[in-house]
């Protein structure tokens, strides 16, 4: 398609730093544009150290966190780290901030509020732009090794999406693929930009999609329902906007049987069966699935609904086993291929 988006992946081999970096080297060879880390200090090694090693062994692929948060890192710390990575990589760094969610909840902490995320984003961007910022200290704060790194926000809720349009360089929309949710989200990004006197076309747009890695109809349907329930869990507005029903027990009641949440449950078929009351339309609205042609078509429809997309991040679900072949039928030429090789070979060329 004309003006095809860049593609980023945040599912790599986490078994060791060497395995992670080797996997990113392969991702670069396969044509992936971004190597991203979904940081959680309890389940991932230090992302800045690993990305620094990856920067020294790659030349093209862009590197960054998807995502960092102002609860576990002061924005000045995030800005300093991403500027260092940008220097090491020769200008290939991207910083994405969010409220924290799983990484924060696992430590018994409260995710950042929208206003806190906004304040952190503004401060990080100003420091990276070499501005001196009054932070209430003896003298204004300035980042002496500042570099012009883009600062994006990952957002799903309406208030966060609109705020991202006001203050961020770009926004990763986590709203599923229902056209009403996509159109509403992009309208809110543009509204936020206009409110701040910014040109909406200057705000980068990314789309994050859970991509079901199975070609078994029953597994696809159950996993897609679990993804839909995960979106409802964090932002019921994503059901309200397109008029999708939730005709079952409260999500709070169901969460007593799911840990840590519907997006990260160890058995997504089991968690999906807990919400079997969700309609096919609802399940279809929050995930990519099917053949390579099906997924490419779903992506084209989503991009058309938004109008312009700079980056697509297709999360594979369930989480791929490092080094294991993709759990689906593949062409003979891809026998033994993992998720990133399959997607790069079969889906990306179709766009």
Structure notes:
The chain has a single domain (6-219, 291-350), classed as Luciferase-like domain (TIM Barrel, Alpha-Beta Barrel), CATH 3.20.20.30. Helix 3 (75-89) packs across helix 5, helix 5 runs parallel beside helix 6 and helix 7 packs parallel to helix 13 (292-306). Strands 1-2-3-4-5-6-7-8 form an 8-stranded parallel beta barrel, surrounded by 7 helices. The radius of gyration is 20 Å and the shape is globular. By secondary structure, it is an alpha/beta fold. The protein is built from 14 helices and 8 strands. Helix content is 42%, strand content 13%.
Give the end-to-end Cα distance, rounded to a whole number of Å: 5 Å
The multimeric state of the shown protein is single chain
Average pLDDT rating: 95
Helix content: 40-55%
Question: Uncertain regions: pLDDT < 50 for 5+ in a row?
Answer: none
Number of strands: 8
Radius of gyration: 20 Å
Q: What is the CATH domain class?
A: Alpha Beta
Query: What percent of residues are in strands?
Result: 5-15%
| Annotation field: number of helices | 14
Q: Going across the major beta sheet, what is the strand order?
A: 1-2-3-4-5-6-7-8
> Sheet with the most strands?
8 strands, parallel, barrel
Order of helices and strands, N to C? EHEHEHEHHEHEHEHHHHHHEH
CATH topology: TIM Barrel
**Could you state the CATH homologous superfamily?**
Luciferase-like domain
How many domains, in number, for the residues?
1
The backbone outline, from C-alpha atoms, is globular
Provide the CATH architecture.
Answer: Alpha-Beta Barrel
């Amino acid at each position: 398609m004309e003006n095809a988006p860049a593609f980023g992946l945040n599912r790599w081999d986490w078994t060791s730093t060497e395995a992670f970096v080797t996997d990113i080297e392969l991702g670069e060879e396969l044509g992936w544009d971004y190597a991203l880390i979904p940081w959680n200090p309890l389940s991932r090694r230090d992302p800045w150290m690993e990305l620094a090693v990856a920067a020294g062994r790659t030349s093209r692929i862009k590197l960054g966190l998807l995502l960092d948060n102002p609860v576990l890192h002061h924005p000045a710390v995030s800005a300093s780290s991403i500027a260092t990575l940008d220097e090491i990589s020769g200008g290939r760094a991207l910083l994405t901030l969010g409220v924290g969610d799983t990484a924060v909840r696992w430590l018994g902490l409260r995710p950042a509020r929208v206003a806190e995320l906004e304040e952190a984003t503004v401060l990080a961007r100003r420091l990276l732009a070499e501005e001196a910022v009054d932070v209430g200290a003896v003298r204004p704060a300035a980042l002496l090794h500042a570099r012009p790194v883009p600062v994006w926000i990952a957002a799903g809720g309406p208030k966060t999406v609109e705020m991202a349009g006001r203050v961020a360089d770009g926004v990763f929309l986590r709203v599923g693929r229902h056209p009403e949710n996509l159109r509403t989200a992009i309208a809110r990004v543009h509204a936020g930009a206009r409110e701040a006197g910014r040109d909406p076309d200057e705000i980068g747009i990314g789309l994050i999609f859970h991509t079901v890695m199975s070609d078994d109809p029953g597994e696809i349907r159950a996993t897609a329902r679990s993804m839909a329930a995960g979106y409802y869990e964090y932002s019921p507005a994503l059901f309200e906007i397109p008029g999708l029903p939730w005709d079952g027990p409260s999500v709070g009641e169901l969460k007593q049987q799911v840990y840590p949440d519907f997006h990260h449950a160890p058995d997504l078929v089991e968690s999906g069966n807990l919400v079997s009351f969700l309609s096919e339309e609802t399940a279809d609205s929050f995930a990519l699935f099917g053949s390579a042609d099906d997924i490419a078509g779903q992506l084209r429809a989503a991009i058309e609904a938004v109008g312009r997309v700079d980056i697509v991040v297709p999360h594979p679900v369930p989480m791929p086993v490092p080094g294991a072949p993709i759990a689906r039928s593949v062409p003979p030429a891809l026998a033994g291929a993992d998720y990133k090789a399959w997607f790069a070979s079969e889906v990306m060329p179709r766009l």
